[in-house]
Amino acid sequence: MLSQNSLLKRTWPMLVQCAEAHRKPRWLPVAKSKIYRIPKRPVISEDERLELMRLHNNYKTQMRSIRRFYHEEMIKEKSTRESASSEMSQRLEAEEWARCVELNEKWNAQVAVEREERRKLEVAALEEYALKKIEADDIKLKERIAKASEEIKKQKELSSTFITPENLDAAIDHALANPIDYNFAIDLKGNKYEGRDTQIQYTKAKEEKSASATA
Amino acid sequence: MSLPPASGTGRYFARAAKSIRLIRQGCTNRPFFHISVTHRRRLNSQPVIEQLGSYDPMPNTNNEKLVALNLERVKFWLGKGAHVTDPVAELLGLSGFFPIHPRSYMTAWRNRRTERENIAKLEAEQAKAKPPAS
User: Fold this and answer.
1) Are B85 and B40 contained in the same domain?
2) What keywords were assigned to this record (chain B) (predicted)?
């Protein structure tokens, strides 16, 4: 891919429109009909010629002086540019540098003060945040401790009902004496009938239906 | 592709002779010229070193032929020893930067002469046409 720069900086145009496109080639001889044609020379009268010569001489002299003037000006400018590295300019440059350094230091001091203020504010904010966090953590811990102590109290209260090796036999006896049946059934209405051997009390409509079915 | 910048894109050789010349940039039947610095031996179709101005030879609605010139750069290139072609020298002369070019004087007096001759011819014709009428 050609870059635009390469297109712009090319030394030869991409499209050359040459004058030969509508002219005959250089190597062709003069046309037969034009062999004896002599181009007419422009006629300039003597007065006009002398006047033009005078004008041209004047013009050339003036132009020469103008050219020399610009050339000398250019040389002068060049020399002033080169003399920019002289002692005087170096001194000026040093002064400028010192001034710049001073200004820079002033700015630095100003910025340092501002930075210190900002830092203090930031530290204060950080401290506040930390204290708040510590307080919140304390409260949370206290809450947890309270919750745990409550739980312990509850468990202690419950511990009187625990089965221990001492009252294990009594508990077994009690359990054997009072069997509990967890089986149950549910009817379509969601009524729960506990026990394996519980008798179901059918409703009246059901009985009628069943009776009609048998009949 | 965008147009090349006025600072020019042509290659620059310090020791080669430069010339400030008109370079035709218009299209068919619409001449328009750039005033450019380029190497003396370079074709007008080739990229220039720098464009110094423009010249529109077709008069606009106010009957003006507009010329734009960057005189600072013209001074710079003259200081560098650039040659100036006759048409550009004429334009610079009319702009007051150079003395008036002799060719400008010549065209002026020739135009005046032809005008005088035309007027004389017209008068002669009128004089010829009058006697039979009177």
Assistant:
1) yes
2) Mitochondrion, Ribonucleoprotein, Ribosomal protein
CB proximity A14 to B under 8 Å: no
> What does pTM read for this prediction?
0.56
Write out the E strands in chain A. 184-186, 192-194
Tokens of A183: 């089986």
Q: B94 and B84 in one domain?
A: yes
Looking at the fold, whether B18 and B55 belong to one and the same domain comes out as yes
Residues of B in contact with A44 (CB under 8 A): none
Can you tell me the distance from the alpha carbon of B124 to that of B134, in angstroms, rounded to the nearest whole number?
16
The number of folded domains in chain B is 2
Q: Is A106 on the interface with B (CB under 8 A)?
A: no
Residue B74 and residue B17 in one domain: yes
The residues, ordered by sequence, that sit 6+ positions from B97 with a Cβ below 8 Å of its Cβ are B69, B71, B74
DSSP codes of every residue in chain B: -PPPPTT--S---TTS-EEEEEEE--BTTB--EEEEEEETTS-TTSPPSEEEEEE--S--TTS---EEE-HHHHHHHHHTT-EE-HHHHHHHHHHTSSPPPHHHHHHHHHHHHHHHHHHHHHHHHHHHHHHHH-
Interchain proximity B102–A59, CB inside 8 Å = yes
Interchain pair B45, A13: CB under 8 A: yes
Same domain, B77 and B121: no
Q: Is B12 on the interface with A (CB under 8 A)?
A: no
Segments forming the whole domain that contains residue B51 = 1-100
Q: CB count, 10 Å around CB of A195?
A: 12
Query: A68 in contact with B at a CB cutoff of 8 Å?
Result: no
For residues B73 and B124, membership in a common domain is answered with no
Give me the tens of pLDDT residue by residue for chain A, a chain 215 residues long: 566 666 666 656 555 555 556 788 889 999 999 999 999 999 999 999 999 999 999 999 999 999 999 999 999 988 888 876 677 878 888 999 999 999 999 999 999 999 999 999 999 999 999 999 999 999 999 999 999 999 999 999 998 888 889 889 999 999 999 888 888 888 898 888 888 887 877 777 655 556 665 54
